[in-house]
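Self-study notes.
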Amino acid sequence: MEFVPGLDLCRRFHDDVVGPIVRGRFPDLRYAAGRLDTGSELLGLDTPRSIDHDWGPRLQVFLAPSDGHLAHRVERAVADDLPAAFLGFPTRFAGHPDTGLGVLSRTGDRHGVRAGVLGDWLAESLGFDPRLGVGTEDWLAVPTQRLAEFTGGAVFHDDLGEAGPTRARAALGWYPDDVWRYVLAAQWTRIAQEEHLVGRCAEVGDDLGSMVLAARVARDLMRLFLLLERRYPPYGKWLGSEFGRLPGAPEVGDALSGAVRAATWRERERQLCRALTLAAVRTNERGLAAAQDPAVSRFHRRPFLVLHADRFASALRDAITDPALRDRPPVGAVDQFVDSTDVTASAARARRVAAAVLPD
C-alpha cells in the first residue's frame, strides 16, 4: 500500500467514513472532529517508518457537554459500520492499549476513533481549557511539544462554533509578547550558564566534557532559533527536523554541526561563537528588547571567547511590561527546566512542577 501522510489519511477517513457514520446515526448532533492528540503526523514529520505503531486512520470526535452521554454510542456506531480497510490501511488496531493504540491489524480489537466532551479532553491534555482564556501560568505549564502538536494538528469538522476546538487552537497560536520575552530570556539564560564551560573543560583535559557541553549549547540554540521564529520547539526526536525548516537554518546548522564535530576545543569554540553571533543578530532583529552588541569577547580574564549571553537575557527581561512576570525566576516554561518525558507527557505533572518553582 502506498504511504499517505497521516493528517491527510485521517482527514479523508473522517470525510469519507466517520463523518457519514456520525451524521447518519445522529442527524441532529453537533460535533467537531480532528487530530489534536499526539504523533509525528501532527507536525507533518511522519514517514513510512511511522506505520509500525500508533499510526493510521484515527481521529477524535468532540461533543458539547450536553451531548457527552452520547460518546460511547458514537464510538459504538463507528465500530459497527467501519469498513475493514481504508485506502489500503486496516481501520483497526491490535497490541497493548495501555501504551497507545498499537499496530494496524485487520483482526484488531479496537478502532482509532475516540469520542468525548471537548472540555474534558482539553483539561486532561493541556491542563486547562484555552477557550476560557489563557493565563501566564497556563502558557508556562504546557510543554512546547504539546503546544506544537495541538496547534500543528488539524480540525476536520467543527460545528460547535465558539465552543469548538478551532477557537481553542486559535487561543494558543503563539505566546503574548511579554510571555515570549520571558521564554526567550530563559533560553538565553541557559546558554549564558554554559557557553564558557566548553573551553574550561578542555583546558583541564576533559575533552569529552567539552564536547558534551558544546552539544548542550547547540541544542539550546536550536530551541532558541525556533522560539525566535514563533515555532514551538518539539521534543528531541523532531527538534532537528523542525529546526531544519527555519529560514537561515543551513548557515546556523553548519556552525552548530561544526561545533559538535570539532576535533579541537578551539574549533569547537569558534563554531559556537559563530552560531551565537547569528542568534544575537536574530534576537536584535526581532525588536522585542534593546539591541545588544552581537560580538563575542573574552570571558573575564580567561582565554575563552563567549557572547556573554546574559546581556540578551537581561535586555529581554527589562522589556517585560508585567512586573510579576519580569520578577519571576528565570526558569522559563516547564520544558526549559524539566527534561523528563514522564513529567512533560503528563499535563497534571507538568503543571505541578511548573508551580513548584514559583516564589511562595
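Second protein, same conventions, sequence then structure:
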Amino acid sequence: MKPSNKEPRKLQLSYFLNNDVIFLAKDLLGKVLFTQIDGKITAGVIVETEAYFGVQDKASHAYGGRRTDRTEILYSQGGISYVYLCYGIHHLFNIVSSVEGEPHAVLIRAVEPLIGKNIMELRRNMSADKAAISSGPGSAAKALGIDRSFNRKDLNGDEIWVEDHGLRYADNEITAVPRVGVAYAQEDALLPWRFFIKGNKYVSKPNKI
C-alpha cells in the first residue's frame, strides 16, 4: 500500500462514468465509503468488491437487457446507489457505473471501519475489532447504516459518498478471484471479477487464493 499526502477529496460523478467496470472495481479498493444518517457520520475503507458487467454478464441483474422496476436503476447514468434486499434479510450496496443505458455496477463486499466505529458497533452489536462487523456485503451495509432508503441516492450528495484518501495498492497486493454465490451464471461464474486486499482481516471468506 502506498499512502499519499494528498488531502481527502470526494469522488466526483465523472469518476463513476468510466465504462470499464473491471477497472473501477479494482480502483475502488482503498477508497473510503461514507454515510451520514441523522447527523452521524460513519465511514469504512473499501477492501473488497465485485464487478458486474451489464447485459453481457450472466451474473448481473441486467443480463440480456432485463429491465424490471427493481433493476431499472442500473440503466441510469453512473454515480448513484443500487441497494437491494438479498434473501429477504441483507441489504446489498452497489455503485452504478458507466453511462446511461449501460447497466454496470460494483458490489461493495467489505469495508474496514475507519470513522464512527462506536456507531458501527451499536448497529452490529459487536466490537469493531471483530472482522465480522463489516465483512461481507450485508454486514458492510448494516455497519454503515445502509438500507433500502439509500437506493437511488446520488453518490456526490451528503447522505452517502466516496472519498479518495490517497491509498493505492499495487497489483501484487490485490487478489482477483471468481465472485461469490453466482453459480447460476454458468461460465460467467468463473470470471475473476471479485477483488480484495490481500491480508486484510475484514475481507469476507473465502479470502485466500
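Instructor comment on the second fold: Residues 9-197 form a domain with the 3-methyladenine DNA Glycosylase; Chain A fold (CATH 3.10.300.10).
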